[in-house]
Design a protein that fits this description.
globular, 2 helices, about 60 residues, mainly alpha, single chain
Length: about 60
């Protein structure tokens, strides 16, 4: 069984937002467990007042 890489705590919010942006950009699916984990992580940062920014634009986006 392969170990899962977990980003450092200070980078976790950025990592998750980049992960979501990459999934959207490439039209990749998200299973139920992944969706739950992503939502929990993003909600945790939202509760802490951390700003959430999309740093990678979806394919075809301008701006």
């Amino acid at each position: 069984m392969a170990a899962k890489a977990v980003p450092a705590a200070g980078y976790r919010c950025q990592y998750v937002t980049d992960w979501v942006a990459d999934k959207a950009r490439w039209g990749l699916s998200v299973d139920a467990d992944e969706r739950t984990a992503l939502a929990q992580t993003l909600n945790q940062f939202n509760r802490l007042g951390s700003p959430l920014r999309l740093t990678r634009q979806p394919a075809g986006a301008t701006g």
